[in-house]
Amino acid sequence: MVEHLYTLRRDLKDKSIYVWDMGRKAIWVFSALALRGVRVEGFVTNFSEFVGDTIMGLPIVSVDEFSELEDAIAIVDDDVREGAFNVVASRGYALYYSEALELNPNLECKSPYLYGTGELTWDIAKKVSKVGVGAVSGFITEKTVTKTVSILGVPVYTIKEAPLNADDAVIVAADSHCQIGDEVAVLLAIGFRGTIYIREVVPHFSLWGDNLVYVLDKSAKEHRRLLLCCGDDASRALLSRLLSAYGINVDREVFMTRKGESAGDIWDLADEDSDRSAVIIGSFSNRQRLEMLGAAYDLGYSMEKADCGSLQLSVNNEYLLNHVVDYEYDVRMLASIDYSCLGGKPGWMVHGDEAEATVRIVVVGGSTSTELYYPESWVEKLYKMFEADGVKAVVFNGANEGNGVTQEMSRLLRDIHALKPDFVISLSGVNDQRAQENKFEQVHGDNPFEFWRRVEKYMKLVVEEEGAEFIAILQPMNACMRINSLFENMYFTSENHKWGRAFLFGARDDDFYFNFLDMFHHQDGAYIDRCHYSDAANRIIAEHVYQLLKERL
Prior knowledge:
- With about 550 residues, the protein is an alpha/beta fold.
- The chain is built from 16 helices and 27 strands.
- It has a 7-stranded mixed β-sheet with strand order 1-15-14-10-11-13-12.
- The longest helix is centred in the C-terminal third of the chain and has 18 residues, at about 450-465.
- It is globular and about 70 Å long.
């Protein structure tokens, strides 16, 4: 059984719970409460255009309507600024999300094990010790230790050595979405039948876990059949808790692997009409979720159509999940990836044969261009277009998750002379919406678009000095549209929406860069999350870039 480490405060159980706003962070708050079995009654907003609409059948009400409700409380995401918080707080009872939670009362008088030995584990240990929870029974780690190892007198066990019983409790101290899933999956795999406590199913404002509500809302509004496919009983229980709290019926349930004659596996969904149904995936195993997502895609469902949702999305591909490659610390770029085991180089995935290539292309950018996400990147599609046309090209892809223009510049300064490209392509912008500390300059209050444009110009000078041609592309961004539909507001809007406005108002079509900014504005199926492109959108980007290169060859 999986429980949350923190649950809704007992003194709030009789209140009518509302969530402030309907942007991405509000949807995360709603999901976090719903997965705890909390029944949310609706959403509060000061955007009049959305008042009267619904999300998962729950009403969106104005601040005035909220102020007339009795025993109602608005729960506000912790990142909402004080000014916005005061708007709703002045008209009724409001609390930040963290203020509305307390330690799970089921932990009282227990002596839990803590899964992990890092700083976060100690932070949790100190918090639980202050509220009546018994002394920690032990620490659990996947590292190799001997039975004599202890931390301040508390024993440390490997996952296989830990003397876990069915009435024990284990607190998973991990914070990243992958590590949470992996550690819960490990405990389930060894047959642990006690209670596993996690801080959140999906960490706050994660890119990878925020489409479940959209899929449920969309399937209800379009009267789709709801299909449930789970890989473990723990995720099934969590999903069932959420669905039952909101009266949502599952039309058909299958499992990742067949369970007896009465319950089929995911491939039995082949007889369902994917245009009239939606599939919800549940599994704590990151690898298993990727397999299930691949199966769902083969059956006609996809994240881009918003008819395939999950407790946590797995958009890392098998290279990362199977640890074929991994992130490495790099003092110049903070993080980098060594692709040597895949035929690439440190920091660069390589497509094509360097020795035979007649055209050499270098790509830099962020996660929207990286090779480690699912589905296939536009960079790989670009290489295949050259291949299909019989052009012997080699493409060096140095895009890395989270990279902004300063990291791109550092990557080029380090490696461009050795790579000897004919063309360098920078497709970027989304990671520069908010000013970041950088190695080149500190300009407080700098316009993020002007900063992006200025560093792109610096890169252009470096590239041209090396005898190559520079193609700067302001990438498609959905966080800066002037007007959003309700779905777009739920899916895209956040603080980045405000930061992205500098790009919207500054971008031009007659500058040295190519302006792809609004390429996918208000287009269904172009994005699979806040910023990453769908397979169809990646193909469109690759086609545009290919055309730009063909004109120059």
